[in-house]
Amino acid sequence: MQAWRVHRNGEPSEVMELQETDRPTPGDGQTLIEVRAANINFPDALLCRGQYQVRPPLPFTPGVEICGETEDGRRVLATPALPHGGFAEYVVADEAALLPAPDSLDDAEAAALHIGYQTGWFGLHRRAHLRAGETLLVHAAAGGVGSAAVQLGKAAGATVIGVVGGPEKAGIARTLGCDLVIDRRSEDIVAKVKEATGGRGADVVYDPVGGDAYAKSVKCVAFEGRVVVVGFASGVIPAPALNHALVKNYSIAGLHWGLYNTKDPAAVRACHDELTVLAARGVIKPLISERVAMAGAADAVQRVADGTSTGRIVVLPTGAAR
After folding, report:
1. Where are the beta strands (DSSP E) in 104-210?
2. Span 189-210, mean pLDDT?
């Protein structure tokens, strides 16, 4: 089969190599899956760089979420078992963790429903306890993770403020349903949030960026607000000033969605059921900006790594527009 392999750590476009290799062999409790669509996530870039919290042995295949078909004909969502990641024609995954692919979504959309939307749902509902009528501030609102949070925030009845970089991404954020869009390159985030909320600030902040985004967020978070730390796409991990959290009365909540797979797998399945219902109602729909053939995977992962992409880029191993 064909698979993208990483033999040394570095930038995705430099270290990913498309090669012929053997199909992976399922272990106990695992299932062989033919990949129909593999969604690109920022962790795929971190895996290539050797900067992710999981460091598979070299060589490995990146690709942390797929939509595929099992040998008995089931259409499923899966997180492949590394080192045999999703940018390949076949993967293996734990049978117990497989989720049924929603009928309302095509393969590319279904592949993008899993990690980003699960992260958004757990972040907004389990960690931040977002309530209808509250104001939600979403950083990188036109990106894969941010776009999911925007849609889920609107589904929860929140007023959503999206932060983006540049007019093109601002337009995308508006189409996703943001009530207000702030271009961080030309506008003052803190001033705009305070103006929009009558000086109160954002009740919930969803931050997959870190760095300056976090620093600006805590300056415009509301009394008893909640900041959900999702990731550090900026490459800068902030050091929270806990005295500031004390005097402003806000909470900082970390979110590592992967832990729920081992700590509370029933919650993951319940979340998937909820997401499936929302997708069937048309309330949420993954924003697929590109569907690329297998040969274009390395360049696509690099675009995600560089932060130039919008929505989700999905790799289709057969090259079909599914």
Report:
1. 135-139, 159-164, 180-183, 202-207
2. 97
